[in-house]
Design brief:
The protein is of the alpha/beta class. It has two domains: about 130 residues, Rossmann fold (3-Layer(aba) Sandwich); about 130 residues, Response regulator (Rossmann fold, 3-Layer(aba) Sandwich). It contains twelve helices and twelve strands. α2 links the parallel β1 and β2. α3 runs parallel beside α4 and α5 runs parallel beside α6. The chain is elongated. About 5% of the residues have low confidence.
Length: about 325
């Protein structure tokens, strides 16, 4: 059968098209989207740096996007939906609301997108792995430190973070249970007020509490923004250092407060490790490797006495610029 030159050209074009599609499929990079609760606090910058390190080591393409403020549920849901529509291979999600993010998370797994939850829990087990600190245990670690600092019948105040945030709710519960066990004579002057998602709103809430209660022996705050807001309120009221203060997370202003004696303990997570392990676990899930359903990234209590130790220095001062320069 005689083949015309036109037919031969068309046949060759089809072959080239098929080969090009196969090559594009072969060359397509694995994609992992990391969606934090927010992008403002130093905690999330550390998570980002760890995620970048893991992505470079694994040879995957990383997308980093989240709401600016940690109360923007609508924005975070839209970001998840956008990455589901784009068809990324995996999503690493820090849900800012344990209930509101369930439906968009399930939409991801329904499209065979691997889902790894970090930092804060989800009211669902429809995910590959949960990578986070044991937040309840972290609250108990803070309680142990507080029990060492205040009298057995000391007057205690807790400024909560925000309703719906599973991670901080677990810290608050762990702290309360720990104090009940270790210092049962403690008198709670306030444990039902919320600082909100910014350090400014936490500062205002802290000022209101300090104005209401003159006699306080100890204060606990469960995250970076509430700790910084309370620190500012104590400093402006002239009570910094006089009230025993145990907070959470390790931004530079908080570490300065610790060194000055205005803060007496900081419960430190390892956000760099959380971002790193979160992405590594997502890549392992994509490749069909065996992974653990729950991975604990650990906590430590940092005090003025141990902050100079090498392990603590590495924990509080990771080299973020190395990974985030130009990001």
């Amino acid at each position: 059968m005689k083949i015309t030159s036109g037919a031969a050209s068309a046949f060759m074009a089809l072959l080239m098209l098929a080969a090009g599609a196969a090559w594009a499929q072969q060359e397509r990079k694995t994609t992992v989207a990391v969606i934090p609760k927010g992008t403002t606090h130093i905690f999330w910058k550390s998570v980002h740096a760890g995620a970048v390190k893991a992505a470079r080591e694994s040879g995957v393409e990383l997308f980093w996007q989240g709401p600016q403020k940690e109360d923007d549920r609508k924005m975070q849901i839209e970001v998840v939906q956008n990455f589901v529509s784009r068809g990324v291979d995996a999503i690493v999600l820090a849900p800012l609301d344990s209930t509101a993010l369930v439906r968009p998370a399930r939409a991801a797994t329904a499209k065979n997108i691997k889902l790894v939850i970090i930092d804060s829990g989800l009211n669902s087990d429809d995910y590959s792995s949960f990578v986070a600190s044991d937040n309840y245990k972290a609250g108990r670690v803070a309680a142990k430190r507080m029990a060492e600092l205040i009298p057995p019948s000391g007057r205690l105040l807790m400024l909560r973070y925000a309703e719906g945030s599973e991670s901080t709710m677990q810290r608050e519960k762990g702290f309360q249970d720990g104090m009940k066990e270790l210092a049962p004579g403690t008198v709670w002057v306030s444990d039902n007020q919320y600082g909100g998602v910014t350090s400014e709103s936490a500062f205002q809430a802290a000022q209101n509490l300090l104005n209401r209660f003159e006699q306080i022996d100890g204060i606990f705050t469960p995250n970076e923004s509430t700790t910084f807001g309370m620190l500012r309120a104590l400093q402006t009221s002239g009570r910094a250092g006089k009230v025993k203060f145990v907070g959470f997370d390790t931004s530079e202003p908080l570490l300065q407060g610790l060194r000055k004696g205005d803060i007496h303990g900081l419960t430190a997570q390892n956000p760099f490790k959380m971002g790193y392990v979160g992405v590594k676990t997502a890549v392992a899930a994509i490749r069909g490797e065996a992974i653990e359903k729950r991975i604990d990234t650990g906590v430590a209590m940092i005090t003025a006495a141990n902050i100079g130790e090498p392990e603590m220095r590495e924990l509080v001062n990771p080299d973020l610029d190395r990974w985030l320069e130009g990001k």
